[in-house]
């Protein structure tokens, strides 16, 4: 016997969505280039967005690091004793007195965003 409370929380899989008509055109064009329906293309984009893309993303993305981990002259940051190159989102240089979140990892290059 099914639980009526659980049954009332089951999702239909349908999501009404309003988007800009220009974005709609771009998405249809990209879906067509991949030989997919728009629904299938959007489902793929959503699924891809939920899963880490690579090993580095699984290991690093979301970690918060302190500005004291930076070697500012060499533009390196130490994570678990290993030095990585980095880019700062929306800034040119890192600050030694700030905290940063790792928002992307691509090989040995980390993209960081200052936490405010």
From TrEMBL:
Pfam families: HicB. It comes from the Bacteria. Signal peptide: none annotated. GO terms for biological process: regulation of DNA-templated transcription. Transmembrane segments: none annotated. This is Toxin-antitoxin system HicB family antitoxin. It comes from Leuconostoc inhae.
